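Forum > Structural Biology > Help requests

Title: Can anyone predict the 3D structure of N-acetyltransferase domain-containing protein?

Hi all, first post here. I have the sequence for N-acetyltransferase domain-containing protein but no way to get a structure on my laptop. I'd be grateful if someone could post the structure tokens.
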Amino acid sequence: MSTTEGTIQWSCVPFRELSVHTLYDAMQLRSRVFVVEQKCIWVEVDGYDKGCWHVVGTAPDGTIAAYARLVAPLLKGPHQKRPIISRVVVPPEARGTGRGRVLMLKAMDECHKLWPTHGIEIGAQQRLEEFYASLGFKAVSEPYDEDGILHVDMHHDYVKSTVTAL
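Reply #1:
Sure, ran it for you. Structure tokens for N-acetyltransferase domain-containing protein below:
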């Protein structure tokens, strides 16, 4: 599925439908932010991408303007009952523009199209807990350390979001 909002072209596709260029650019952005900027030395490509759906916002010049990964229920094992929105990222130069909020709303909408009888879970960086709460997520865990960054598990149980982009 593909839509245009503002100057960003949005799509949500399974792994097999990602072009090699889009896949490369998404992985490069993820590594730039999650490994280099946040100084998390880990294997960022964790083996789940092939079974996921990928929400991609593409700028007019063809660069990745926003990206999120949708992990299908049960992909990580029988304990995972809900879809997970993960690897939520916008380029550092786009932070504070509202693009992350639009990305999350797109990702949430796609989750509910793909898995309409499920809520959503995220493993949010604790510093962003208030942002995710503004989208209707509720903390369901105490903060925990993941790769040197405090995180909190959050769930969203909605049927259809009434949250707006800005």
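Residues 20-37 form the longest helix (18 residues). The mean pLDDT is 89.
Shout if anything looks off.
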